Amino acid sequence: MLAISILFRLYFFLSGYSWIVNYVSMPACLDSFGLGAFMAWLLLFRPDQYRKLFANGYWVILGLLLWAGVIYWSKTFAEPKNIATDVWERLAGSVFCFFLIGKGVLGYGGLMKAFLENGVVLFLGKISYGLYAYHNLVYNHFHSPPNHPTLRLLRKIEQLVPAVAHNLLFESLLFFSLTVIVATLSWYLMEKPINDLKDKLT
User: Fold this and answer.
1) How many H helices and E strands in the chain?
2) Range of the domain at 168
3) Is residue 162 part of a domain?
4) Spatial separation of the C-alpha atoms in residues 2 and 179, rounded to whole Å
5) Cβ neighbours of residue 107 under 8 Å, at least 6 residues apart?
6) Angle ∠(90,96,101) on CA atoms, nearest 5
7) How many structural domains is the chain composed of?
8) pLDDT value at position 89?
9) What's 46's DSSP letter?
10) Distance CA 167, CA 148 (A)
11) Which of 107, 136, 154 is the last residue of a domain?
């Protein structure tokens, strides 16, 4: 799966297609799926090897350094979209997440444990499907038209408080806050009632 995914992204990059093809196409994500499937297989059928592989937290740090290295490499190109971003960044991110999640299953200690068990992080984890499902509807830099409700709200706030106009940090906080609100509503109005139904029916 990893090879298919890398070759798919490489083909479309070398063929001159827009980066969006590699960003949204399912075959371009097969390295993530492949590593996830391998992790699940190890956990189910080779638990001793799983523990041996993921017990050492240094793999998480090495995965993070690999991903950061690819990001740094991508900035050395004149074009913002290049072979590093289009072909290798997703693999590096997948390797980092592979070790991050794998270690998480066994459990973290220290600061990482405190961070993951923080109430805010736990709540965001609870509504994480909604964050994933709705973030693109709240705002998409490439597709949201100027009359999109989120952008209209942003312009209205900028009129009332000119100091925040064209402030990337403020815009990011606004989009994130709106996404959290929508995901929270979805959790309490839709997802939680469906989950409760499942418990009643089994």
Assistant:
1) 13, 0
2) 124-201
3) yes
4) 32
5) 113
6) 120
7) 2
8) 96
9) -
10) 18
11) 107
User: Which two three-digit tokens encode residue 3?
Assistant: 């090879």
Alpha carbons 57 and 75: distance in angstroms, whole number: 28
Q: What is the pLDDT of residue 21?
A: 86
Q: How far apart are the first and last CA of the chain?
A: 36
pLDDT tens for each residue of 84-101: 999 999 999 999 999 999
Q: Which residue has the tokens 């189910």?
A: 44
Query: What local confidence, expressed as pLDDT, does residue 142 receive?
Result: 84
State how far the Cα of 128 lies from the Cα of 148, in Å rounded to an integer: 24
Does a structural domain hold residue 19?
A: yes
3-state SS class at 51: helix
What mean pLDDT, rounded, does the chain reach?
Answer: 95
Half-sphere exposure at residue 127, Cβ-oriented, CA atoms within 13 angstroms: 23
Nearest one of 119, 115, 121, 124 to 184, comparing CA atoms = 124
Residue appearing with tokens 């709200």 = 153
Query: Can you tell me the distance from the alpha carbon of 166 to that of 138, in angstroms, rounded to the nearest whole number?
Result: 18
